[in-house]
Amino acid sequence: MALNLSVCVEMIFNNLPFEDRIKAVAAAGYKAFEFWGWSNKDMPAVAKAAEEAGLTIASFCVEYQGSLVDPNNRDNFVAGARASIEQAVKYGVKTLIVTTGNEIPDVSRWAQHDAILTGLQAAAPYAEEKGVTLVLEPLNILVDHKGYYLTSSQEGFDIVRAVGSPNIKLLYDIYHQQITEGFLIPTIKANISLVGHFHCADVPGRHEPGTGEINYANVFRVIAESDYQGYVGLEFVPTTTPEDALARVKKIAGLGCGCC
Fold first, then answer.
1. Which conformational region is residue 33 in: left (phi greater than 0), alpha (psi within -120 to 50 degrees), or beta?
2. Can you say how many angstroms the Cα of residue 165 is from the centroid of all Cα atoms in its chain?
3. Over residues 177-202, mean pLDDT
4. What DSSP state is assigned to residue 6?
5. Rounded distance, CA 108 to CA 103, Å?
6. 75: Cβ–Cβ under 8 A, 6 or more apart, which residues?
7. How far apart are the first and last CA of the chain?
8. pLDDT over 90 percentage in the chain
9. Residues 6 or more apart in contact with residue 153 via CB below 8 angstroms
10. pLDDT at 258 over 50
11. Which residue stretches of the chain are H helix?
12. Cβ neighbourhood burial of 96 (10 Å; 0-12, 13-18, 19+)
């Protein structure tokens, strides 16, 4: 099975006006794109540009006030999740990214872990009703996100299992997990049913696959040979032109120069 690749237009083609980035993704031969926040976008214009280019919006982020690790912030998270799900339904987006926020120093990690769990449990019924999957994202704290709560994919998978909803999964960011824990292929193989989205970039530098230490040909092959049917988001800083970087990714992914 071929990989479903999605271009993150927050990091790639970000020198262009936003709607023009969508056209550039299509011109590069890709069929999907993603971005971070939705409330700072002209979503009708984004949807129109996507339709005209024949592209799918693969994902954007759940926006909410406060932090998911704060036990007192559950209502804000659920309200934000519901509003984001409504936007997703309106624009045909099937996957929304959830970040936890930074660790709270005077609250135990168990209480923060539990706050994530119960917050996602509270949001899950609406996600299930609307057919949208929320994907929880661990990030690295060694290079990019000092203070962020959720770094371990294993803790993330534990939370997903405990929530027990088919519409709550993990965003496995290959770049972040290589920095945090490595052991990429065995972890992906063991937990692929719990993954709802991937992100990728190489280490070091967060550049396109093929520029660093990760053997992306092997990692991509493992994903392609699994039952995974979601997207692999390309979230990197190109070392060359975006077009050349994206062509390089296609080659590594075994997609040649044709459309993916």
1. beta
2. 18
3. 98
4. E
5. 9
6. none
7. 11
8. 97
9. 138, 170, 172, 177, 180, 181, 187, 191
10. no
11. 18-27, 43-53, 74-90, 109-130, 153-163, 174-180, 184-191, 216-224, 242-252
12. buried
Q: Is pLDDT at 216 greater than 80 in this prediction? A: yes
What are the boundaries of each domain within the chain?
4-252
Q: What residues have CB less than 8 Å from 2, skipping those under 6 apart?
A: 224, 253, 254, 255, 260
Interatomic CA distance for residues 175 and 157, integer angstroms: 17
Tokens standing for residue 152? 């371990």
- Taking the C-alpha atoms of residue 128 and residue 131, their distance in angstroms, rounded to an integer, is 5
**Global pTM value:** 0.96
Query: Counting every residue, how long is the chain?
Result: 260
Residue 259 is predicted with a pLDDT of 42
| Domain covering 4-252 assigned CATH 3.20.20.150 in the classification | yes
Closest by CA to 80, choosing from 97, 55, 93, 102, is 97
